[in-house]
Amino acid sequence: MAKDIAAQTGGNLIPIASAITNDSIRVDTDVMGIVFPVYYGELPVIMKRFAGKLDGIEHTYIFAVCTFGGSAGYSLKLLRRIIRSRGGELSATYRVHMPQNSFSKPWENPRKLSMNWRKKLGKVVGNTNSRAKGDFFKYNLLTPLFMLADCTVEIMRPRYRKAFMKLSDASPELSTDELIHRNDTSFSVDENCTGCGICSRVCPVHNIKMTDGRPLWLHHCENCLACYNWCPTRAVRGGIAAEGYFYRHPDIELAEIMKLRSPAE
User: Fold this and answer.
1) Which comes out higher in pLDDT, residue 157 or 69?
2) What is the CA radius of gyration of the chain?
């Protein structure tokens, strides 16, 4: 989606992970779009860090496009709040239902969902060019269901924490974000692992290192499931992914994923 928007607006495509190690992220442009997935009904941890480092956005037209498998949850509200704390304003927001990458939904057609985005692309581009403001693509015929899902995020948060603590066997004193980072404690590889290292090379935050031909997770995981979904032998196992279900966007190549990394720390 970010590729599509950049191509039609003449924008530069910058991976968020590539800038996340900077102390400050200076925005030297009149327009900035932020495209991100929704995790657990909220912003991914890396997105909170990214938005909290933005500088020079007082006069920038900012739009955000979130993708979700269940609902947009609290993600856009939290992003707006963080951007305001940095002196900026989130002018336009878009919710786009896309395929799940962690568990199967037999009633959904991933290709059809992806094609539905192409139909919405023109609206995003047109609104951006005209600097339109508002909350767009709120949902569709399933609006009541998605709105219910949005409203239950607060109810579900304690359950998420409980599940995270069970996965990682971590202290309940840790914050939810810290628990999310430690969800990789549940990851392992089976006998199909060839030691190719692709899991390490697709991790956007260098959370995996190869040791004796096997991946070792380092507990600052972003829960993106790149290691799980891009393993060529499907050898990765983990508690936050449904056993036997894998999804990769058909229009994204492995080489592209490998470029979406933060600088080595």
Assistant:
1) 69
2) 18
